[in-house]
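PT: before anyone asks, these are the final sequences, not the draft ones from last week. 596 residues across everything. Please model them as a single complex and drop the result in this thread when it's through.
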Amino acid sequence: MERTLEHELIVKEGDNLLTPLGMTSAESYRAVKAGQSALRRYEGLWGVPEPFVASLLDRKAIDQALDAHYSIRALETYSFFEKMAILSISRALEQSSVDPASDRVRFFLSTTKGNVARLETENRYRPDVLPGYSAQRICDFFHNPNPPIVISNACTSGLCAQIAAMRALQQGRCDHAIVVGADQQSKFIVSGFQSFKALSPLPCQPFDRDRQGLNLGEAAATLLYTRRPVDEIGPTDWIACRGAIRNDANHISGPSRTGEGCYRTLRAVLQDTPPEELAFLNAHGTATPYNDEMEAIAIDRAGLSDVPVNGLKGYFGHTMGAAGLLETVLSMYALDDQTILGTRGYVHCGVSHPLRLSATHATTQRKSFIKLLSGFGGCNAALLFRQGGDLC
Amino acid sequence: MLTLQSWIHIAPTGACLEGHSVPVTDSNEGLLKRLYHQYVGDYPKFFKMDPLCRLGFIASELLLQNTPDRFSPREDRAVILFSHSGSFASDSHYQQTIADPNDYFPSPSVFVYTLANIVTGEIAIRNHYFGETSCYLLNRKDPAEMIAIVEEAFLDPQTRSALCGWVEYVDETHYETTLFLVGPEDHTGKPIWNQDTINDLINF
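LR: through. Structure below.
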């Protein structure tokens, strides 16, 4: 099927990052640029028997911020997960003239576990523990008449949701897409990753030889996208060019030894793009031994070993459903600032195919990047972004 | 526009392939296990799967069993599944393993199935599909949304066919799947895959 809107591109028209280091994208970016990390050690939290290191939101601060926007009473029955998504969306909307109640607007929710923490108080089947219910509540809050879509592709959800939104815009099914990613941490998720022996007892060290695993994080992140004719696009506009989703067809909980799906997503999004055009590749970089090695193999196979690579999990941990949006927005703000963010926690190369990694920030004049994610179920996703009005 | 190549429906009352009831022998086992023994039999990973994956897997097996070159690796087929309850059954199972501090036994083999997209991965692994795998959760069974999203997946220039549909598992007596194999128009008289076709075929 041919793309129906050849002369138009998908443009970012708003964003928000709700993180432990800031309630806007600019605040969160400034904290990262200053080298801060939200990772802390927690003991006994939520009744998890073993200590863990995580990046967690301040629930009170979220409620206070929401109270300043809306009557908190209107949000009384909303879960923390739903509230953080609503706050992030409302802040992103402030940057644009998009009316979320319009029938030309669609909502895309990226989450892996939604309201699963509600099973802790009552473990039985009911609507409010399902992600589709949360999505509908969020949509209803903004009086949007369209059915919301939840993208549930494990850790790749945040890119897959952007890809789903791009496609709906390309097909003319909507004029504006509100893409929000969020996950609330809980005993459920922490204990699950502990059972996999996937958590690091220390702040994570992506791609480092001493890396011991990942840290979990919570955040909400929003991107607003619209369609715009090529000749109306300015030099600072961010374009979502091309995305791809591929499977390893190998294992449900272990990445491919050949980086198969990840390599294939890179091949699909690169097409004829010369590697010299890329400012950097923002990897998934969870800091588990297998993920980072797999990505190094895939990047090398795709002929991108000379492109700078960074991983951002050392600042906010692995924010699951939010990660694809959070790391996309941070990468955009970094390039607005002509910066390649450093990989916090990286010291010595710990992958078999050396990558151009650095713990410290660097400068660049280039204007495009690729964001990568991989996840359970063997799924992989990549998206190519470019600043300015060239056709993708 | 996409054309419908084949379809299957499975519910606790039985399986139906292309509108014809799939014969199953009587035994004490549940329907999904009986279908596995009778029509698959050589893929013991089935027994490791959670119920949602077993349901999607068995449906895909019955749908694909007579297709030529079935296991040749390919990147041109997407697996796109829709659900309402997603991984709820496994979420609930996993929650039981961590609820009691005196009986705390979280297990990776249970936890991994608390992701709704694992079923797409199981199908990709079995059939050597390197193409797109996507899982969407909807607040209700909505064929218009499903068709629009699957059609949009064909914007990926490498995608030439899709195994797609609805897969929903709550418990042993509440489950249902309808899977479709769809592709581009091929002028072989296959029906267009739209809401009318779906409603004509089955009470979706």
